[in-house]
Input
Amino acid sequence: MHMMRNRMKKNKLGVTYSVFCGEELLRSSIMSVRNQVDYINVVWQEYSWTGERMDENLLILLKELINEGLIQKIIKFEFEVSQSAKKNSYYQCKKKNLGIKDLKLAGCTHGMLMDVDEFYREE
Output
């Protein structure tokens, strides 16, 4: 029985957020899942897919969320701005995979991909 317990891995749920804009919703979205998850990261980008610069408040908010212990890690995603929808689709996938990779490194056994406008009821 003791050896069996050692082999059983405790489930660990992680969430990765992909963020560029909509930061005014991020805290509320995090609060809707925070009590049910073990780890949260935010993958952010400085420029939109078409080259628009982010709102300066995004970095301020991300640092606040780290300091408050609501998220564990922020990851900057850098890419070459493109007008091509195909290329942007590729970058979006790459950005989400960056968040998933971090969840795995943090020992998460399960993960959720979330956007800032997604909310869940705790129950």
In short: The radius of gyration is 16 Å.
